[in-house]
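Researcher: Go.
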Amino acid sequence: TVNPDPSTDSILPSQTVCTATPSAATSIQVINPTGGISNNYNYQWYNSSGIIPAPTGTNSTLLPETSTPGTETYYCVITNNPISAGCEYTTNTHTITITPAPSVDIPFNQDTTICLDGTIPDLQVDPNGPGSITWEWNLVGGTNNPVDTGSAPDASTNISYTAPTNQVGIFQYECKVTFSAGGCTEETSNIITVTVVNHPTVSTILTPPPICEGGSIANDLSVTSNGGTGTPTYNWFEVTNPNNLILLTTGIDSSFNPGPLSPNGIYEYYVEVIYSGNGCQPDTSNTVQITVNPDP
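Model: Structure:
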């Protein structure tokens, strides 16, 4: 009697998993074997390198290794004893793709300092890993996390978040991404720090003592500024009448001396400070008067 060779249902054709130890793979199983000369079947598994070092036996299931990134193939040869009977069947091939462990990268330095209510580009991270992804942005130490969530069919999506700037303080954000492929753990990005500061303010210019015609004030007009970010620029103005301003000097010097003043009268000055940082509004000092009296 010559019987048909054994046959089985198709084994799992493929899977993609992340590098992991122990294995993160789904087991491959030979199911529903039929045919041959008996219902007792031998199973020998092979990979692309040849026979897998395990004795031929009754184990119809194999758990692929996933410790090293790469691509591997598996198949199983099913036989009946005695081998001389020639009852043999080879399954379809299973392909497993083992990707490196996932990551969530910050593509460039996004730490920034900005003035209150200023505008900054969206924070951004780049996920790297197989399968669909979900993510959540969290404020480190925050009480209302997550501050944003999302999902995408794969990791080609750039994940972004619009950070608020309506409150002064130091705010640290991180993004946690979950990858759907087997063995892929959730990964969290490094921290992006957004520092929000108050707009600059400039101190009061002190009124100098009166001088005589042709004289100079002993101490420079001077201010200090607080808040803001970036480099300050000081623009010193003379007010000749309410509608006429003369820009006398501009630069990083927070002090100014108008030099000898003549003729006698009232001379008025103020300073405007402008910070180069993102979103910072200028501030203006008080207007100070220098009284120039006639000579004796």
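Model: The CA atoms of residues 13 and 94 lie 5 Å apart.
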